[in-house]
Amino acid sequence: MYYVSQTGEYLNKRKIKTIDTQASTLRFGLANGSVKVFDLRNSNYGWGLILFNGRNTPKEADLVEPAAAVKAVFGK
């Protein structure tokens, strides 16, 4: 839980909206009209961080070191 908390604070400082969910799947609508689906029942997403800028394909990021992924996705 420590890294979840730390990453949440990091994202909040950069004014990046976060959403906590209990859903088993996430669907992201992309600017080109396609949809990217993440099946959260897959154990790889148990404590994962998925970054989405509203246009491009969502990216999985490391909770321990989110800075590089945040910069790549959001430019912040």
From TrEMBL:
Question: What organism does this protein naturally occur in?
Answer: Hymenobacter coccineus
Q: What is this protein called?
A: Uncharacterized protein
